[in-house]
Design brief:
- The complex is a heterotrimer of chains A (381), B (109) and C (402).
- Chain A is built from ten helices and 15 strands.
- By secondary structure, chain A is an alpha+beta fold.
- In chain A, the strands form three sheets. A seven-stranded mixed β-sheet of chain A has the order 10-12-8-13-11-14-15.
- In chain A, a hairpin with a 2-residue loop joins strand 1 and strand 2.
- In chain A, helix 4 packs parallel to helix 5 and helix 4 packs parallel to helix 7.
- The longest helix of chain A has 18 residues.
- With 109 residues, chain B is an alpha+beta fold.
- Helices cover 39% and strands 30% of the residues of chain B.
- Chain B is built from one helix and five strands, in the order E-E-E-E-E-H.
- A five-stranded antiparallel β-sheet of chain B has the order 3-2-1-4-5.
- With 402 residues, chain C is an alpha/beta fold.
- Chain C starts with 9 loop residues before the first helix and ends in a 27-residue tail after the last helix.
- Chain C has a five-stranded parallel β-sheet with strand order 2-1-7-8-9. In chain C, strands 4-3-5-6 form a four-stranded parallel β-sheet, sandwiched between helices. Chain C has a two-stranded antiparallel ribbon with strand order 10-13.
- In chain C, 63% of the residues are buried.
- The chains are: A alpha+beta (381), B alpha+beta (109), C alpha/beta (402).
- Chains A and C meet through helix 1, helix 2, helix 9 and strand 15 of A and helix 1, helix 2, helix 3, helix 5 and strand 4 of C.
Chain lengths: 381, 109, 402
């Protein structure tokens, strides 16, 4: 043992420690870290379902194909929303976001595709600190679609828009031959205004910040998975969590709580959002497994199917990165509102290791939480 | 290699075709109960181990309690030692901290 | 959740880890968990963080997804592309790469590939689609094989003519033997596969104690089960015993499940040999359908290319599976071979040693290093010596229980 030969903290000790750091395993891990930081490239010849699942493959598609070809200073930020400058106005900007909805089945416990489309777009604006002004909706309808179904979806959109205090102000309709679409797809675009300079920005995330989750994970993804009927599971208590979060975000921002960043945890779940945050901000995120809020039924589904709830989609939950001194206030405020009754601090931002998310397990160990790879598929082994 | 989960057997729904219903966290699934015979004969309310839609075996409450009892007995005997380890770690961290603060220092041992 | 949460108790874990630390002494222990489910648990709960550095867990070959050779997956994909076929398989298999893409790619290219949770779901699909040929690509050890067997028995009883099984069921004993026969192997004992044992019982592992003089403890899949299993192996060695013990009594009977064994024998017979990815051909290590079930045998009903595809040369999965190399010691680990673009078997399923290490394990190692760096030298000679004298044990941290 060379360790016993040197004085701790001395030059020799530091050299010895550096030598250990440079051991082969560490070199491998460092090389992996480097590779992971590289811009991904699109290796596949064809689009697979993984590219739509919100995890690594989606990320690669967006950065390596769309981001590469359409590159410009606004798009390159790869936010859920873009903020455009309004000529001659410097204290507010125009926030724009767009989202497509192809969920099957169209109706599921707790919501439907119409409500999802409105809420999803409002949430993408809200988590960026913007006040939603109006929504545009484009419909792709399959030949033969029951008008009663369409009416039900559009009525649901109306209710969702009214609930969030936003109007659907324009739209478009296309009909495709039977079999060229699955009943109905909706694309919604939202426009809002945001005060500049924006308080909600990746560079504001600093080590020491706390990570707050606005409620229990995985309700939406688990509900839809069961509603599809592929896994033959039933759970009476399971409901999608789809809801607008603009009231919650406005209350947080108005209260003066020092919110550094927010993002809604949709496809890819909380794990993917945390990874996006860690990578974009060049920080580490440490979360505490025991603190993670989750309903029994989602846990049951996750256990049976061997899926980690951290990767299951939500449609009404956000992750907020808040200055440490305001953490309690932020959580109290969230809990006082219907959207955030189960809000809780789930972790903290650390300086290192850069770009990595890890979890302290309830069992006393630690593990890495990577981005979702492909779809969260049920496993048997 | 095989994900199998303990779930509560709610009822047998089709005795002839050997189907039953299990429940976990309010989630229910129909499972095949063909293998629940002999020692694994299970009454509704008891737990079974479920794998790919089949109940593999009955989960024995008695044996589970016995395993936990053994585990729990290991606890107290080592609590003292754990305390000692924690003290040692705290001491060490303090000493190491001091080395960094002072730039250098003697061996903590 | 009953029978799960109790076995995830952190305080009991720390106490048990402390006991293992105290009793393991200065010896370097190498214990292999045979089963991929154990590997998954070990990484998911960070169990290695609790164990002293001189107790090393070696991640064995028991992941049924990982061991499917590329050529066999290609065969499955070829069947999936046959006209009129609905190809069904467990979700685990969807992303596993064959030589020309995965089942997910085949699906993107137009094949009707459907994920099922149970072989009974495949049977249901066959009943609902009488004009289609429904193929179930069966994988799994003795745990899963009875489910396939019972499904086939039901299909036969109901006179179903459009359900076919592409059988890749394997058995656990032959690869264990192959690993034990490997000359470069130094193991102190095995954590036996709990769920396989619900079917086969614990007696089939007696050859390990008798012929190879290594203790076996059949363990469950919650983190405390694994820690207790490790402790039981250490106790056996220290007490000079060498036995097959059953830690997982709550579900495993010493004789297994006779009914499950009976249906296995009725529907399956041993194949003369089967190729294991990373381990090569192992005789009598897999199951095929009995002649009585030939009409249901996808390999007999469809024309299967049967082209053997060699494992990529750079891939060192065999060594990793035998515990000779650690995942990160493989030449392509984490660079050419990642969970998104796996080259070798150990990276393809979340149960594979490499994928588990890549997905879950990278940080805790990095942290250990930081702790070593941050604390300078470690005190010695106070009863928590880190001097186990093993060179490749990277970070001599005395006690990691917090």
């Amino acid at each position: 043992m060379t360790d016993t030969m040197v004085e701790p903290g001395s030059g020799a000790a530091i050299r010895a420690a550096s030598a250990r750091i440079a051991d082969p395993e560490q070199r491998v891990l460092e090389r992996i870290a480097e590779i992971r930081k590289r811009k991904p490239s699109m290796r596949e010849d064809a689009i697979t379902m993984s590219h739509g699942a919100g995890g690594k493959a989606s990320h690669t598609l967006v950065t390596a194909l769309f981001g590469d070809i359409l590159s410009n200073p606004v798009l390159d930020q790869l936010g859920d929303q873009a903020v455009l400058a309004i000529p001659g106005v410097d204290h507010i900007g125009l926030a724009v976001t767009t989202d497509s909805f192809v969920v099957s089945p169209l109706f599921f416990p707790g919501g439907d595709i119409g409500e999802l489309a409105v809420n999803g777009t409002i949430n993408d604006l809200a988590v960026g600190g913007a006040t939603p002004m109006g929504i545009s909706a484009a419909f792709i309808l399959e030949e033969g679609l029951d008008v009663a179904v369409l009416r039900r979806v559009v009525e649901s959109m109306r209710r969702a828009a009214d609930r969030a205090g936003v109007s659907v102000v324009t739209g478009d309709t296309k009909v495709v031959p039977r079999g060229k679409a699955d009943q109905l797809f909706i694309t919604t675009t939202g426009v809002g205004v945001v005060a500049l300079p924006n308080r909600i920005a990746i560079p504001r995330i600093v080590p020491g910040d706390v990570v707050i989750l606005s409620g229990a994970m995985g309700d939406h993804g688990a509900t839809v998975m069961l509603a599809r009927g592929d896994v033959d599971l039933e759970a009476d208590s399971l409901r999608s969590d789809t809801m607008p979060l603009n009231g919650l975000t406005a209350a947080l921002l108005d209260s003066g709580v020092d919110v550094h960043f927010m993002r809604d945890a949709t496809r890819g779940g909380v794990a993917t959002v945390l990874n996006e945050i860690a990578q974009a901000a060049g920080v580490a995120v440490a979360i505490d497994e025991a603190s993670l809020p989750i309903h029994d039924a989602v846990r049951g589904v996750a256990e049976i199917l061997g899926i980690d709830p951290l990767y299951i989609a939500n449609e009404g939950k956000l992750v907020a990165i808040v200055a440490k001194q305001d953490a309690t206030r932020a959580v109290d405020l969230m809990r006082s509102r219907p959207e955030g009754t189960e809000a809780v601090v789930i972790g903290e931002v650390l300086a290192e290791p850069e770009g990595m998310v890890f979890i302290h397990t309830g069992f006393g160990g630690t593990r890495v939480v990577d981005m979702l790879i492909g779809d969260p598929l049920p496993r048997i082994c | 290699m095989c994900l199998a989960i303990p779930a509560r057997l709610v009822e047998y729904v089709d005795e002839e075709r050997m189907y039953g219903k299990v429940e976990l966290g309010g989630v229910q699934r129909r499972i095949n109960t063909s293998l629940l015979v002999g020692e694994d004969k299970t009454e509704p309310g008891e737990y079974v181990l479920v794998h790919v839609g089949f109940a593999l075996s009955r989960v024995s409450e008695t044996e589970a309690a016995e395993t936990l009892r053994i585990l729990e007995e290991m606890g107290p005997a080592y609590t003292d030692e754990m305390e000692q380890i924690r003290e040692w770690q705290a001491m060490e961290e303090e000493l190491v901290g001091a080395h960094y603060r002072d730039g250098n220092g003697g061996s903590p041992a | 959740m009953k029978f799960a949460d109790e076995f995830r108790d952190a305080d009991l874990a720390r106490a048990l880890a402390a006991r293992i630390t105290a009793e393991s002494g200065d010896k370097h222990w190498k214990i292999m968990e045979v089963c991929g489910g154990h590997t998954h648990t070990i990484f998911k709960y960070g169990i290695e963080d609790l164990l002293p550095s001189n107790v090393e867990l070696v991640h064995g070959p028991g992941c049924p997804v990982c061991v499917i050779p590329m050529g066999r997956l290609d065969d499955g994909i070829a069947v999936a592309h046959e006209p009129g076929v609905i190809f069904t398989c467990f979700g685990d298999l969807m992303r596993v790469p064959g030589s020309k893409g995965s089942l997910l790619d085949a699906k993107a290219a137009g094949a009707d590939v459907r994920m099922v949770y149970s072989p009974l779901d495949a049977l249901k699909i066959a009943q609902e689609n009488p004009d289609r040929k429904v193929v179930f690509y069966a994988i799994g050890f003795e745990t899963t094989a009875p489910s396939t067997a019972l499904t086939l028995m039901r299909a036969k009883a109901e006179g179903l003519r459009n359900l076919f099984v592409f059988c890749n069921h394997v058995t656990i004993i032959p690869p264990m033997k192959a690993i034990l026969d490997s000359p470069d192997l130094q193991l102190d004992g095995f954590l036996g596969p709990g769920h396989v044992s619900t079917v086969v019982g614990i007696r089939p592992f007696e050859f390990v104690t008798r012929t190879y003089n290594k203790p076996v403890v059949v363990v469950g899949f919650e983190p405390l089960d694994i820690l207790q299993g490790v402790h039981m192996i250490i106790q056996q060695v220290l007490e000079g015993r060498c036995e097959v013990e059953n830690q997982y009594r709550r579900v495993v009977h010493d004789d297994g499940n006779p009914k499950a064994l009976e249906v296995l024998a009725r529907v399956f017979k041993l194949r003369s040999h089967f190729e294991w990815r990373g381990l090569g051909f192992i005789s009598q290590s897999a199951l095929e359908l009995q002649d009585e079930y030939a009409d249901f045998d996808a390999e007999k009903v469809f024309s299967v290319p049967g082209v053997r595809v060699a494992d990529p040369k750079a891939c060192q999965c065999g060594e990793v599976l035998k515990g000779v190399l650690k995942p990160w010691e493989c030449k392509v680990f984490g660079t050419a071979c990642t969970p998104e673009t796996p080259i070798g078997t150990c990276m393809v399923s979340s149960e594979g040693a490499c994928a588990a290490y890549y997905n879950f394990g990278r940080y805790s190692r990095a942290r250990e290093r930081e702790r070593v760096l941050a604390s300078g030298d470690r005190p010695n000679g106070n009863g928590h010596s880190n001097g186990n004298g093993v060179e490749h044990d990277l970070v001599p941290l005395a006690v990691r229980a917090r």
